[in-house]
Amino acid sequence: MLNAFNFVFINVDTMLAYKEELFASESKLLGLNAKTSGRAHSQASLDVLWASLTFNSRMVLHKLAKLYYARKQAIEFFDLYRQSRYVVHSVVIIVIF
């Protein structure tokens, strides 16, 4: 019965491995122990997170960091939303033209 269908295999990553890696107390995938190498564990986790983000997500995270360090206080959601909307919109315009 299944032979009647023409199935196409499409690999869809769920990013579950990244989620496990970031929130695990011991980083088994990276071979690190959070208790003995906390700084290396944090850096490696951030590297994995950064690599998993899309270009637009990276731009928004970069904008969030710049706003935070410029103001030295928390950023309101709608301020970040307005700034992010501009970033994503300008990237779309650059790609179109």
Automatic annotation (TrEMBL):
InterPro entries referenced in this protein's UniProt entry, alphabetically: ORC2 (IPR007220)
GO molecular function, one term: DNA replication origin binding
GO BP terms, alphabetized: DNA replication
Listed GO CC annotations: nuclear origin of replication recognition complex
Protein name as annotated: Origin recognition complex subunit 2 (inferred by orthology to a C. elegans protein)
